[in-house]
Amino acid sequence: MSEKRSAPIGFRPSAEELEIIRTKMKQVGMRNRGAYLRKMALDGYCVNIDMSDIREIARLLRICSNNLNQYARIANTTGTVYKAEIKDLQKRLDEIWDLTKKVMEMLAVIT
Predict the structure, then answer these.
(1) pLDDT tens across 65-90, in order?
(2) What integer pLDDT is reported at residue 105 of this predicted model?
(3) What does the alpha-carbon distance between residue 88 and residue 57 come to, in Å, rounded to a whole number?
(4) What is the CA 97 to chain-centroid distance, rounded?
(5) Does residue 6 lie in a domain region?
(6) Taken in order 26, 31, 33, 37, is the CA torsion positive or negative?
(7) Among the residues of the chain, which ranges form H helices?
């Protein structure tokens, strides 16, 4: 939103309600109460996604990319690539696909 927020909306929660709001903010990892309340008012929900699996996928992809570049250099220099290297790369790619499927299944539940 590029428009400046100029229309105030306010409410006064009880101490118990305020504690519930704080607890829910903590659960989704939000610290800014105004942002949390705006998100809840506009969309009705906030989602906290654990990105550790996605970071692991990115790490594995970097490793495979580096290995593939090394294999390409070797192939261009010597004209050969060893089967063991290709099998290792295939194993790593299978791990990435397995992890990707797991992440996609977890994301499908969120909708």
Answers:
(1) 888 888 888 888 888 888 888 888 88
(2) 86
(3) 17
(4) 16
(5) no
(6) negative
(7) 15-28, 33-43, 52-78, 83-110
pLDDT value at position 2? 53
pTM of the shown model: 0.50
Instruction: Looking at the structure, tell me whether residues 88 and 40 fall in a common domain.
Output: no
Q: Are residues 44 and 57 in the same domain?
A: no
- Nearest C-alpha neighbor of 22 from the set 44, 41, 43, 37: 37
- HSE-up (13 A, CA, CB side) for residue 66: 6
**For residue 51, what are the CA distances in angstroms to 42, 54, 76?**
24, 5, 37
Owning domain of residue 80: 52-110
C-beta of residue 48 within 8 angstroms of C-beta of residue 29: yes
CB atoms under 10 Å from CB of 88, counted, come to 14
pLDDT value at position 7?
86
pLDDT, the chain, mean? 86
